[in-house]
Design brief:
The complex is a heterodimer of chains A (111) and B (113). Chain A contains no helices and 12 strands. With 111 residues, chain A is an all-beta fold. In chain A, strands 2, 5, 6, 10, 11 and 12 form a 6-stranded mixed beta sheet that branches. In chain A, strands 3-9-8-7 form a 4-stranded antiparallel beta sheet, with no helix packed on it. Chain B has no helices and 11 strands. In chain B, the strands form 2 sheets. In chain B, strands 2, 4, 5, 6, 9, 10 and 11 form a 7-stranded mixed beta sheet that branches. A 4-stranded antiparallel beta sheet of chain B has the order 1-3-8-7, with no helix packed on it. In chain B, strand 7 and strand 8 form a beta hairpin. The N and C termini of chain B lie far apart (36 Å). The chains are: A mainly beta (111), B mainly beta (113). The interface between A and B is medium-sized, with 23 and 24 residues.
């Protein structure tokens, strides 16, 4: 069965600094991988997804993620964080019939 | 195009009461899902549907029932609410299963006293 681990519960980054959120997955076959963002009181919005091909995936709002099969990782990055990026971020892996989410990483942005 | 909508947005129940949460989507998606979100546990799948008239159990189905009588609607029922069902409930829909983006509703915050 597929599973996702997000080892960081909270991360605090200064505005303008770079960001990397970690995600490790477990899945027997080639995974479909996703990053979603949830702003306070809102539903989830898709940032980006990986199916196959280029291992560096570009998403919305300046985010990107890199798929590394050898490390079973799909880390999310942004070169310069804005205060509006403060939110909770979820990594997810898709099997045949369902999407399995990690427990999320809450990003705090300091001035 | 409203996407995925959920009603109600908030609800407070007493233990043992029943209620139904309504999810509607206008994207003609075949697949619909109900999740619950609890602090530190991410989103967990309750039930899902792969088409009108079909439902299937997810990871945490106990205490919930669902129905998909119309393609655009997916109902989540609690027959006898318990405090353990206090949570935020999200509905989602997608065009297909594996690899397809799921579109989420804004959520329903349910408190069971």
């Amino acid at each position: 069965a597929q599973s996702v681990t997000q080892p960081d519960i909270h991360i605090t980054v200064s505005e303008g600094a770079s960001l990397e959120l970690r995600c490790n997955y477990s899945y027997g076959a080639t995974p479909y991988l996703f990053w979603y963002v949830q702003s306070p009181g809102q539903g989830l919005q898709l940032l980006l997804k990986y199916f196959s091909g280029d291992t560096l995936v570009q998403g919305i709002k300046g985010f990107e993620a890199e798929f590394k099969r050898s490390q079973s990782s799909f880390n999310l990055r942004k070169p310069s964080v804005h205060w509006s990026d403060a939110a909770e971020y979820f990594c997810a892996v898709s099997g045949f019939q369902k999407l399995v989410f990690g427990t999320g990483t809450r990003l705090l942005v300091s001035p | 195009n409203a996407g995925v909508t959920q009603t109600p947005k908030f609800r407070v129940l007493k233990t043992g009461q029943s209620m139904t949460l309504l999810c509607a989507q206008d994207m003609n998606h075949e697949y619909m899902y109900w999740y619950r979100q609890d602090p530190g546990m991410g989103l967990r799948l309750i039930h899902y549907s792969v088409g009108e008239g079909t439902t299937a159990k997810g990871e945490v189905p106990d205490g919930y029932n669902v129905s998909r009588l119309k393609k655009q609607n997916f109902l989540l029922g609690l027959e006898s609410a318990a405090p353990s069902q206090t949570s935020v409930y999200f509905c989602a829909s997608s065009f297909g299963l594996a690899g397809n983006e799921q579109f989420f509703g804004p959520g329903t915050r349910l408190t069971v006293l």
